[in-house]
Amino acid sequence: MNKDMYLIRAVEMATIAAYKFIGRKNKNAVDFAAVEAMTIMLDNAPIKCRIIVGEGELDQAPMLFVNQELGKGKTLTYDLAVDPVEGTYSSTYNIAGSIACLAAAPNTILKLPEMYMEKLFVGPDLQDAINNEDDFITNIKTMQKMKKHNDLIDIILDKPRHQKIIEKLHDLGIIVRLIGDGDVLAAIDVINKEADFVYGIGGAPERGINGSISIKCWWQY
Question: How do residues 61-81 score in pLDDT, each as one tens digit?
Fold first, then answer.
């Protein structure tokens, strides 16, 4: 079996394990089932992986924790960023939008602390418009010039902390698509050209998955 398929199988089994807990309003049960399944699959694979972005450091997670090494391979194959249940709330209440996801790369995934941070995700067609030295509004105006229209589509979490940002987006003519949870899935929508960018303030681990390269695997609940 191609070594990449072991990663895909780990994501698939995390989804299958969590499925029976969907809609039971017990997010810990959903999360534990997915984490356990992904851990078992990765630890029994004939490759060696190291977790760079994993389960919550603040919670001292017993599985898929940062720097944990998994697999039976002799040499390190991949660094991993994992989120066995991205969108826990959605799966807990049987709302569409949760996924199991994993990103893998050969020693190139950025390790991020568990904190909130400003995040902007764009597709390949707009990457040249982004300057990290510029503020968010300047970057948006540059994207609008590049696409030659104002009504770009942004996906943003519908949270109180984003209300002023949403107002600014409306003032700029941006079409705003609100979501309740899951900005990794939102980033996939950008890659699929269903939106132009994702912006907001959210968890750093999800940024690690969004920004990782090489192999990306996801499986929707």
Answer: 678 988 999 999 999 999 999
